[in-house]
Design brief:
Layout: E1 2-7, E2 10-13, E3 18-26, E4 30-39, E5 46-51, E6 57-59, E7 67-72, E8 77-82, E9 91-100, E10 108-111, E11 115-120
Parallel strand pairs: 2-11
Antiparallel strand pairs: 1-3, 3-8, 4-5, 4-9, 5-6, 7-8, 9-10, 9-11
Length: 121
């Protein structure tokens, strides 16, 4: 089994910072892209940022310059440093990882349980 366990969400005032972490564990052969998505009430889940195994990053326009994604491959962990937070960043943030459990198998997506981020004005 594979688990993605997130931590670091919470309540913060506008302009503040939070750091999310997501650790993958279980029967894992390799991890490709890791990333963060978010879903606000009444809205669809959207990509916030992701990072490929070689370190190439991709960000949603709404968070560029404010959020930084990084990963520690040895720890199988992805981080999201969120600065200059805005009320519109309020959402449940989900960790995502494309990984394989055995050599030669196709990478499949796994999701964390989600962590709430609330930014007050």
């Amino acid at each position: 089994q594979v688990q993605l366990v997130e931590s670091g969400g919470g309540l913060v005032q506008a302009g503040g910072s939070l750091r999310l972490s997501c650790a993958a564990s279980g029967s894992i052969f390799s991890i490709n892209t890791m990333g963060w998505y978010r879903q606000a009430p009444g809205k669809q889940r959207e990509l916030v940022a992701n990072v490929a195994g070689v370190g190439i990053t991709n960000y949603a326009d709404s968070v560029k310059g404010r959020f930084t994604i990084s990963r520690d491959n040895a720890k199988r962990t992805v981080y999201l440093q969120m600065n200059s937070l805005k009320p519109e960043d309020t959402a449940v943030y989900y960790c995502n990882a494309y990984l394989t459990q055995r050599m030669g198998h196709k990478a499949t997506p796994y999701w964390g349980q989600g962590t709430q981020v609330t930014v007050s004005s």
